[in-house]
Design a protein that fits this description.
- This protein is of the alpha/beta class and about 475 residues long.
- The chain is about 50% helix and about 15% strand.
- It has 17 helices and 14 strands.
- The strands form 2 sheets. The chain has an 8-stranded mixed β-barrel with strand order 6-7-9-10-11-12-13-14, surrounded by 4 helices. A 5-stranded mixed sheet has the order 2-3-1-4-5, with helices on both faces.
- The radius of gyration is 28 Å and the shape is elongated.
- The mean pLDDT is about 80.
Length: about 475
């Protein structure tokens, strides 16, 4: 039955496309569009998501494929609590609510502007009020105003399903986009993708509405580019370590370096890990990137040792992703260190506190310690840091971000908190590293709180293999 419904919908779309291209009479097209919308709505909830997407795109391109998209903008809505309703109340509840939301929006905005996209997503396409004069600020304000209006309208609705007494409400997140200044978007499909991307960023930033700016547009272009080129970048060996010196607060000497993954794209553009990590993880490539960067880090470290640029107790800290932590066997890392004549005790793996919540991750971390590697924990990067991590996990260094150290004045209560935190770490026999030092005040507080090590842009940004060599030679006797 489902296959028959799907086939019927596809045939109907082929028919409407044929009619649209054959007839010029608008009333004929509108009549068939109305019939098609009715049939689609009846069948919509009975077919799969991928087919729904094909249907939605076909309708949208039929209506907007030949229109000037510079005069239009797209609002991409996602109902964020439908999954909860389906999971805990009734599996069909979300579909029925979504149908009612769609009906209410079409009544409010018109059927030619509202499109069901997926199980919990709706696309709204609207025309700018003034298409003759293009003012980007006014257009931004118009997008935000109308997106807020749509959001408020939906949020105020309540729904009754199956004639039950319960009233259900919904929460949503919205992204909105127009072609902006760049004007490199050529069709409505690309505009929808940009609005969808804005919606995803709004979810990530935990805000309700995000309008796509030219900056967001550029970020999306970069991610699209990364998605296509990251495999090629690995093949061309473009992923390399950049080094951030670690400095002893008391002596001012450089006692180690942190190795950070960077993508040297086309030899000229340096791309930080945060820009491509999610894509690399999705493509299961980050383990390979980590491994290659570790190899290059060990090679650089071995070169420094051979040329007496660093001392025998110089430390190298390497960021290790959760996937890599789980994938690598400690003996593989030990053998790799032996190949470059490096003592495991001189290697410290930096693990984010977010990544050690599972038993498997904790087990892998303990295996690293058994293999004599050092381990640091990058703590307080989220709101839910548990002090139990300080007691239950066997690591060597506690890393605190600059955001946890006040930059100007601090109250007596704050002062006692930071002092107590660092004292507690020392009692647990941990070294404390304050990262992200960017000014004298950061360094002053780190020194007052008896932090062991510091690093940050106050001293230098991360440096490639050539420039770190110059830096290490220049400040061999100390930097402070």
């Amino acid at each position: 039955m489902k296959k028959r419904n799907t086939l019927l919908v596809i045939l109907l779309f082929l028919l409407i496309t044929l009619v649209f291209n054959t007839f010029q009479r608008r009333e004929v097209v509108n009549l068939i569009l109305s019939m098609l919308s009715f049939v689609t709505l009846l069948l919509y909830l009975k077919i799969k998501d991928d087919v729904k997407l094909v249907i939605s795109k076909s309708i949208i391109f039929t209506k907007y494929g030949k229109k000037k998209i510079k005069d239009h903008y797209v609002v991409f809505l996602e109902i964020s609590n439908l999954m909860t309703y389906s999971q805990f109340y009734d599996i069909n509840l979300s579909d029925q609510i979504m149908k009612q939301v769609y009906n209410q929006l079409t009544k409010k905005l018109g059927r030619n502007h509202v499109f069901l996209y997926r199980t919990d997503q709706i696309v709204v396409i609207l025309e700018f009020k003034n298409t003759a004069v293009i003012n980007q600020l006014l257009r931004y304000e118009e997008q935000y105003r109308n997106t807020r209006y749509i959001s408020n309208f939906i949020s105020r609705l309540s729904f009754k399903v199956n004639k039950k007494e319960e009233n259900y409400g919904i929460s949503l997140v919205a992204g909105c986009a127009s072609i902006g200044i760049k004007k490199d978007i050529t069709n409505v499909g690309e505009l929808i993708k940009l609005a969808h991307f804005s919606m995803l960023r709004a979810k990530k930033e935990e805000i309700e509405i995000l309008i796509a700016t030219d900056e967001i547009h550029t970020i999306k272009q970069d991610l699209d580019c990364f998605n296509h080129e990251i495999v090629n970048g690995l093949h061309l060996d473009e992923f390399s370590p950049f080094f951030l010196p670690i400095i002893d607060v008391k002596t001012g000497k450089i006692i180690g370096c942190e190795s950070l993954v960077r993508w040297q794209k086309n030899k000229y553009r340096i791309i930080e890990t945060s820009k491509f990590k999610d894509i690399a993880l999705e493509k299961n490539l980050f383990e390979k990137i980590d491994k290659r960067v570790i190899e290059k880090t060990f090679l650089a470290y071995n070169t420094w040792r051979k040329n007496n640029i660093v001392t025998s107790d110089f430390k190298i800290t390497i960021n290790l992703s959760l996937k890599s932590l789980l994938a690598y066997k400690p003996y593989e890392l030990v053998h790799l260190a032996e190949d470059y004549n490096i003592d495991p005790e001189n290697i410290e793996f930096d693990i984010s506190e977010n990544d050690i919540s599972s038993d498997m991750a904790i087990h892998a971390l303990r295996n690293l310690k058994k293999a004599k590697f050092m381990v640091s924990i990058d703590a307080f990067n989220n709101k839910s840091f548990s002090p139990k991590s300080l007691m239950n996990l066997d690591f060597d260094t506690l890393k605190i971000d600059k955001s946890n150290l006040p930059s100007i004045d601090l109250s007596d209560r704050e002062y006692r908190f930071y002092r107590t935190l660092i004292k507690f770490a020392k009692i647990m026999n941990l070294k404390v590293l304050s990262k992200g030092i960017e000014n004298k005040n950061h360094l002053k507080f780190a020194s007052e709180f008896n932090v062991d090590y510091v690093q940050g842009y106050y001293f230098t940004p991360p440096l490639d293999e050539i420039n770190i060599l110059v830096f290490l030679k220049k400040y061999k006797d100390g930097i402070l």
